[in-house]
Here is the input.
Amino acid sequence: MTYRSFNFYGYSRESYKECSELIRSTNRKHITILTTWFILINLLYLSFSYLNLFGVNEEKIPFYGSYVIISTIFEIWLLFFPRSVIRHNYLAVFASILILLSYGIAASIAQPYMPATMFLVLLVLTSLSFIGNMYTMIFLTILNVTAFLVTSYSFKTFSIAYHDTYNVAVISTLAIALHYTFQRTRVAQFILYQKDLQVQRELEIKSSFDALTGLLNRGKLFSIAEQILHQKHENYLALCLLDLDGFKQINDNLGHQMGDKVIQTVGKTIIASLDLNEDDREKISSWDLKVPHSLAGRLGGDEFIIFIRGMKSRTEVTDLMQKILNSLNAVKFDGINGIHASFGVTEICPSDMDIDNAYKRADEALYESKRAGKNQIHFSTESIPGDA
Here is the structure.
């Protein structure tokens, strides 16, 4: 049973942590908006002070000017160092709350004969803006309210300070309740968004990978290969087709279940030989195609395809294919005494932009392997574009 916590707005710690990236990003956005607004307000008051308008005199210039400078420095951090802000999210939230509520306290002190209003407004505003956790936000609210009341009783008459106490008790209770309600709704939206992303990832995996072997399916491998070929590709590339020899006899004599097991074994052998990371399945949408990792897929039936990257010569490719062939030949289980396969390989040059042409050459090389006696490796002898 998943434990729901008041501290995480009525959700489990695990669900909350899954949304942490969205929470940090949202906090940064809200901090930036509030800080921009705060700078503009203080610039407006600064101009009023300078012009002696609306009862704001020149004595207030240092007060508003100092907050403009502090907020501008803070804004520079928010705008130009976003990764740092997201990494130190709690620090950014605390700094924003400190700037805003200290401003509210200072504004209250500046008007000792009036009950405070700015602090109360900012208290509610910050409670609606930031997502942290309930215990932290309650602690910060109590801390700021305490600082506010201490200054109120220190600089105001008892009757006005008493009035401030009543107001802040009501508003802080409201702020905490609103914080829980609003942030619970936000977290619910984040969780729903995360679930949608997970469904999309699962659908992408199902539509990209062969269910039996875990290799890429034909459509996805060809799509990725086309993207790679349309990039600048000066490194050595090769395409290999692999077709099992005598697979029909395995299905006929040992059954389709055994045939599936053979197909799975071939898939595992290719994955192991190419040192493919199966965890990358989960990150297929963000693969960096500039990293020279080889790709492998199942074309269907007993035919496989390998798009070779990261090697330097035909000799290295031959050694890799021989390694796969030797591993398959050494397989023994349940009446299977070695898996035999024919390989057709073609090299790809920088001017070779069409995967279909490379596939055609590899297929012709595969036919030559079959014709020459099977269970061997054969390279295409057909000329490659640009080799003339």
Notes: The CA atoms of residues 90 and 132 lie 8 Å apart. Strands lie at 216-217, 237-244, 295-300, 303-308, 332-333, 336-337, 341-348, 377-379.
